[in-house]
Amino acid sequence: MHLTLSLIAAATLLLAAVLGLRRRTQPAVGITVAALFAGVAALLGAVPSPGTPTARAYLAAGILVAIGLAGTGLFTTATALSRRLYAISPIAAGGGVLLAQILLLVDGALLPLVEPRTGGSCYPQLVMLTGLTLVWPMVGTAVLIGHGRRVLRYIPSTAMQTTLRLSAALFVAAFAALAVLAALQLHPAASPVAQGALAASDVVLLCCATLLGLGLVATRLSGPLQPVIEQVRAAGLFLRLRRLERVLVSAVPSWQQSEAIARPSLLRERPDAALYARMVVIWDTTRALLSGVPTHVVSAAVDFAREHGSGTSPDRRAALAEASWLAWALRGGRGDGPDATFQVLDAEPPPRTGELLAEARLQTEVSTQLRHGRLVEPFLRHLQSTEAEDAAQGSGIGQEPDRQRVAPDS
Fold it and tell me: pTM for the whole thing?
């Protein structure tokens, strides 16, 4: 398992580093350096333990230096984002740490791997080397997490907020596992509990490294793959809006046989073009139904959505308002319905995909509100009761003048 997880972590981290080679900004360069040397450390960790003590010492030295250089990459990104650390040269700081590691290695920090331990032996150089290698990446990570917490509230994308929170949690878990591994390496124990903790920490560290690498790969591929991602989203929205289109078209029987209504299909068109054709049908049928809805119903729907959707986003309130008056318009049979003029899908390309997807997501919310009816049904009952009260008041006002006119004649 250790070999498999190490190779997977190394592959994802090295791939993330390769994808960032063309990026020239300091934050991106720092992340690339961190991913590169973290992948090297994972790759060295996958190498089977050599038979000779000297070879084991060289392998351990390579892993420690690679972790230190990964920490330098994190510190490079941290200095680019932090005002307090902006004046510090990451090359100078990282070079100082690397020099300290080399001096400790030359001073015999890895001597316990070459010569067997004796009773009462103490190796302060090994403790200092391990502590320096462990603390240095934590400095950059702590600065990055602190900066991310400050700017998190200003990020409008919920997905990006979730990604940053998950990355911070993975960093914390990885360094906690690394600390446990370092402690068990400094004070080895043969008890089953210690061996279990060592294996568990190794798995947690490699899994966290793999997930961080995958997240970085996905982030760096999101730009080049954005057109493909948008087409996939368009296809998903096209399928989700099928029910709403069917409900709207079936509202008036004559609409179902109309040749002016497009019949989009993913088999004949690109997903964004098919989605645009379906949105044309939804827009036209919705506008035709709106022409037969009284103004007071639309106003009541807007007020109802504002009252019951105060804790939600503006898009959800708009979707609730539209679903409310649509539910009123779709009640009962409508005969031939209003005189609707449908637009035939032009040969011109659809609008920008981002705007089309945003409008399609709004219509999927309308479809959800119509289907579940958790708030639409209360609106219809509220509207019926309001209309009944208004009718009762109107009849009372209409009868009062008749009584006043009859009184003098009597």
Answer: 0.64
